[in-house]
Design goal:
The model has no long low-confidence stretch (mean pLDDT 94). It contains 16 helices and 12 strands. The longest helix has 19 residues. It is of the alpha/beta class. It is globular. It has a 6-stranded parallel β-sheet with strand order 3-2-1-4-5-6, with helices on both faces. A 6-stranded parallel β-sheet has the order 9-8-7-10-11-12, sandwiched between helices. β5, α6 and β6 form a beta-alpha-beta unit. The chain has 2 domains: 185 residues, Glycogen Phosphorylase B (Rossmann fold), CATH 3.40.50; 183 residues, Glycogen Phosphorylase B (Rossmann fold, 3-Layer(aba) Sandwich), CATH 3.40.50.2000.
């Protein structure tokens, strides 16, 4: 009889996107039960990945009374199912899952940290969130930052002792499916057709950004840097794949005007499949202010693109400067400009980085490698007689 593992996230999209395919893989070895909010979406996920589910209402907001009810409901579920591991992801699922699991006597309580949004918060709210983070880690038996940078941040903030921390494989919560993200899937004819649709000339050098078009992603600085480079080179294009979030983190009005009026800046909106756009680009520009372990940098690399990234957690682990991309200071328009200029003008360096890019992702972040590392970790907790 298979031992039971509970995987818990606040909302099902995290199970679907952040852990794509992983739960189904683990179900070959354990009885996997997914716990999350949004019952209909969770049940749809369960059918798709052929695993059991248990709906538990949670929200990303601070809701003490609802959270206490969620802990109680999860506690009784855990007492009934008696899993040997509860593994949580995302902050709210972490506090609810780890507390309920500790109260229920689950022997192995694992929490993965894929980012720390609280680092951008100040004042009383920051102190409250710091206390919650520490409490979550105290309830866990092991904590898995998904990057070395996150591990250092956790230690610097005294959230828990180093003995409880471990980075699996080379980082990343799920790795990347390098068979799916492969430029060889796209023919020259397909690429040329999309370029023609977008008004990209065959000799244009194409920069691409994939993600939310918000201040926090460094879009204001990137647009200014691109327009500065345009004054020296008019055979460049900037492809933006993603949506605005005007209510949460709006761009400067000047930036929006540039995006709307500059014929060389091509904003195509959100796309479920970003691969066709990566296939026609030369270099990813990703000047974000903060990240966990950014999938898009791995995706671009797997598609053979070097990346210009800011010197932040995650990015500076995926990218090795001048080997598969360039690392630049955060919030530095001139640094973005100089890096963009460098990849356009120094064709020898850019060719070397292109030739390195895919293999440097495949060798370190191939999805099966990450899955096997997690499976190996689970196996260390198994009872000898199982």
């Amino acid at each position: 009889m298979k031992q039971k593992i509970i995987r818990i996230t606040t909302v099902p999209i995290s199970l679907e996107k952040l852990l794509s395919g992983q739960l189904q893989f683990m179900s070959s070895f354990y009885k996997v039960i997914a716990v999350s909010a949004q019952k209909e979406n969770l049940e749809r996920l369960g059918k798709k990945q052929e695993i059991e589910v248990f709906p538990l209402e949670m929200t990303r907001k601070i809701t003490p009374f609802k959270d206490v009810f969620a802990v109680i409901k999860l506690y009784f579920f855990l007492k009934k199912t008696r899993p040997f591991i509860v593994h949580s992801h995302t902050p709210k699922a972490g506090i609810v899952g780890m507390l309920a699991a500790k109260l229920a006597g689950v022997p192995h309580r694992l929490h993965t940290v894929a980012g720390l949004p609280l680092l951008e918060v100040t004042g009383l709210k920051r102190r409250v969130l710091d206390a919650v983070e520490k409490f979550t880690y105290s309830c866990a038996t092991m904590v898995y930052p998904n990057s070395l940078g996150l591990k250092k941040i956790i230690l610097d903030n005294n959230y828990c002792d180093s003995e409880k921390l471990k980075v699996l494989a080379n980082g990343s919560s799920n790795g990347i499916d390098t068979a799916y993200f492969n430029s060889e899937l796209y023919s020259e004819e397909q690429n040329l057709k999309l370029k023609n649709e977008l008004g990209i000339q065959t000799d244009d050098f194409v920069f691409i950004f994939v993600g939310r078009l918000v201040k926090d992603k460094g879009i204001n600085e990137m647009i200014s840097a691109f327009e500065l480079l345009q004054k020296e080179n008019n055979s460049i294009k900037l492809l933006l794949v993603g949506d605005y979030e005007n209510d949460l983190d709006p761009l400067n009005a000047k930036t929006v005007e540039s995006i709307n009026s500059n014929a060389s800046i091509l904003a195509v909106g959100f796309k479920n499949d970003v691969r066709p756009y990566l296939a026609i680009a030369n270099v990813l520009v990703f000047p974000s202010y903060r990240e966990g372990f950014p999938n898009v940098v791995m995706q671009a690399g797997a598609m053979g693109l070097p990346s210009i990234v800011s010197d932040i957690n995650g990015c500076n682990e995926i990218i090795i400067d001048q080997e598969n991309g360039l690392i630049i200071p955060v919030k530095d328009e001139m640094a973005i400009f100089l890096a963009m200029k460098k990849v356009v003008s120094n064709s020898s360096l850019t060719s070397t980085m292109i030739s390195n890019s895919r293999q440097m992702i495949v060798s370190r972040y191939e999805q099966k490698v990450v899955w096997e590392a997690i499976l190996s970790e689970y196996r260390t907790f198994e009872s000898p007689n199982v």
